[in-house]
Amino acid sequence: MHFLNGGPVDHADIDPDHAGFMMPRGTETYVWTGRQRSDGAFVGWFCLYPETPLRAELGYRLARKGWGKGYATEGAAALVRWGFDFCGYGEIVACTMAVNRASCRVMEKIGMRHVRTDFPTFVPPLPGAEDGEVWYRMPPPGLQQE
């Protein structure tokens, strides 16, 4: 959330057109809550949203206290495996701000590859937007990247 709005989630200000994917409230399909096994503490949200029957978009939003502990990599890898093994997706994509190196690294660690950088206009402007929004992609295991 640091690169989306500075960190906090204020559900009163959520854009209803994006609420299901960007800011889940806990009842959305395709969104899972990550919790620590030891004590059940909230870690963050993970999403594998089907864009088409053969393509899904991966997303994750972690609470600050969960940053840097491998939770994003673990949750993202589990959803990617589930998406390929049980949903039959032909590809999984994800995006983040280019300045969000931690999220880029998560995508790279799970085997996704950078495919493009877009330069959308954000209103209000987001810090780092001038570096663009990077898109990553992963085909099913066994298929080569394009």
Shape: globular
What structural class results from the helix and strand content? alpha+beta
Order of helices and strands: HHEEEHEHEE
Number of helices: 4
Total domains, how many? Answer: 1
In CATH, the topology is named Aminopeptidase
* Main beta sheet strand tally, sense and closure: 6 strands, mixed
Total strand segments: 6
Strand ordering within the main sheet: 1-2-3-4-6-5
CATH architecture title: 3-Layer(aba) Sandwich
Query: How large is the radius of gyration?
Result: 15 Å
Mean pLDDT: 82
Helix content: 10-25%
Structure description:
The protein is of the alpha+beta class and 146 residues long. The chain has one domain: Gcn5-related N-acetyltransferase (GNAT) (Aminopeptidase, 3-Layer(aba) Sandwich). It is built from 4 helices and 6 strands; from the N terminus they run H-H-E-E-E-H-E-H-E-E.
Short description:
This protein is an alpha+beta fold and 146 residues long. The chain has four helices and six strands; from the N terminus they run ααβββαβαββ.
What's the layout of helices and strands?
Elements: H1 2-5, H2 19-22, E1 31-35, E2 42-52, E3 55-62, H3 71-85, E4 91-97, H4 101-109, E5 113-118, E6 133-138
Parallel strand pairs: 3-4
Antiparallel strand pairs: 1-2, 2-3, 4-6, 5-6
Relevant terms:
6-stranded mixed sheet; 4 helices; 146 residues; alpha+beta; 6 strands; disordered N terminus
